[in-house]
Amino acid sequence: MPSARVPISSRVVDLDPAGPIRTVLRAVLPVEVRTRGGWFTPIRACVVDSGASYTTMSYRLATLLGLAVPEASSRAPLVTAGGSGLATVRDGELHLRFPQFPGSTFRLYCVFVDGMSETTPVLLGLNDFFDAFRVTFDGRFSPAAPAGHMLLEAD
Amino acid sequence: MTPETRSEPEVAPAANGAPREPDFLSRARRVLAGGARPEDYLPVTPEIRLAVGHTMAGYRERGRGQELAPQVEPRQLLDELLAFHHGGRLIVFTQDAAGVVVLGVGDQIGAILAALGPTHAARLVVDTPPARK
What we know:
heterodimer; A: 155 residues; 9% helix; B: 133 residues; alpha+beta; 12% strand
């Protein structure tokens, strides 16, 4: 089974001079996404989010990237850390390559969300990123991944 | 430094009447053709060095004296560099041995990817660095 270890990214930030210094961890993966033109554009950081039901991308971002997005839309409940509500979405697919798995292209179901800011990171969610990969989070230190790593295993 | 405008002002036609391409697109073409100038690169400021130093010190503490792999510090520097200059914004950037050049911000990335994606896709990296605060 092909596998890869991807470091968890970490930054030290001082959000509040009156409070403690914080370490912010991000479980992110670099990907390359196939465009309508057939070429693959690298996206530096997609968030691996087991708390998200779906792989989601802002419709606006998909447009800027030149992805093939269906015209048909529907309304769907969208739950975020900020609350929940109905959103206009388009059900489609992403064709992704991962630098850790050269030569393979993965097709993932994706919900493109209208009205979501293009600065919202792409979320790799339960349906169906975790069908393609088993992911183990390990926060222990290693010289190449001092803030921990994700172990990705593909079929 | 990166062009700051989110929406480019109307572009005057070239002398032959054909629409002239926006400055940010000409700049991106020049950079990708190997013509990057020193002022194109994102500057590594003392604040960025300090932030990298804090994180690296934390890593060394976690590792209890174990040596870090050589790729860790450059990766951290890239994180901090992009967050410092463009945290919270959608960008497209490219990188070479001399540093990082942000080619476009916000709506500009659509035009850059459409024009230069077919020939330079692998060098055009899209990112939304985390906001610093």
